Amino acid sequence: QVQLVESGGGLVQAGGSLRLSCAASGRTFRTYVMGWFRQAPGKEREFVAAISWSEVTTDYADSVKGRFTISRDNAKNTVHLQMNSVKPEDTAVYYCAGRTTPETAYSYYKFRATYDIWGQGTQVTVSS
User: Fold this and answer.
1) Which residues make Cβ contacts (< 8 Å) with residue 43, sequence separation at least 6?
2) Are 35 and 97 in contact (CB under 8 A)?
3) Collapsing DSSP states into helix, strand and coil, what is residue 90?
4) Checking DSSP bridges between strand 3-7 and strand 18-25, what pairing results, if any?
5) Contact call for residues 47 and 110 (beta carbons, < 8 A)
């Protein structure tokens, strides 16, 4: 069974940094696209960032551009989200997502339906 497990969440002050990680385990598979989404209380789950298998293509939500960086290590089947200059509005549960079917167009990276496996989420709380 394929699993995605997030780690690295916690409490951080506004302006600080946090690094989230997501590790894939289970049967051997390739996650062609990996992404991060987040869900704040009372809100819909929203796209944060995504990265292609080749690492050539990345996509970010406008709200995190210039502050967050997504990266991946295919040898270790992991993806990371470096969060800098965090703001209180970044507070949410962050979910890792993976697509195990071949690459899709870049324009679809921001849609939840693009991904077929999800982690359980890790809480990020930014204090003001």
Assistant:
1) 92
2) yes
3) helix
4) antiparallel
5) yes
